Description:
single chain; Rossmann fold; ten-stranded mixed sheet; 11 helices; 10 strands
Amino acid sequence: MKKIIVPVDFSKQSEYALKTAASLSLKHDAEILVVHMLELNRSLTASPEMINQEYTVFLIKTAEKQLNEFLNRPYLKDVKVTPIIKHYKVFSELNEIAEKHGADMVVMGSHGSEGLKEIFVGSNAEKVVRHSHVPVLVVKNEHTDFKIDRLVFASDFKLKGLKAFEKAKAFAELVSAELDLVYINTPYSDFLSTEDAYARINTFLAKANIADQVEIYNDYSVEMGILNYSKTNAADAIAISTHGRKGLAHFFSGSIGEDITNRAKIPVVTFKIG
């Protein structure tokens, strides 16, 4: 782990993400790229009028001042921090930053969202999870010394998720966590008999060239199963793959990874399939 992206909006949740990233940085000698996204109106920056240009410069200078003050934290004293300000709130730009700087992951804070708020607004974390090509670690509480002993990785163990699993395995090894593999069996979606479930799982494990054991956990939905299994087994964090659906496909189908990111109380790290 060499570089970590942390999107900030100066909220308490941003502080949680920054502290988590600082802890990881000190352990792995990684640089932190702190990204603040302004919500500028594009007509302002495109306008030739002097008053609009002056106002845009004022907003950018104000944001720079706020960001510098926000980064004046004792826990960042021994951490290499690079501040980045983007003009618009476009979460897909994080991929451009990750590619340009060779970032390994995104760490961000979230308070989560459920119900109507989630349907019509969603959370910033959900949007980042949907767009990011690199792993995204989402935290909802303060972690001064971020440590994961038990990491639950939930999967359907179809071969298309093999790359996501390899990334999760590498992450577990990086943070010295025990990787707890689970398949959630439900009565309503993709139900498998025990024999068929293990046939799929064993094919996956053989392809991954590992001999780990996988728990089959039954619940009424995949989301409930992941959350309940993680709670029952005292997991410190949840790892899950996500398809990163967008547009109407996301609205009608949703994403289990995004739902878990919103609902879980413990940290969640997502890995895009493919």
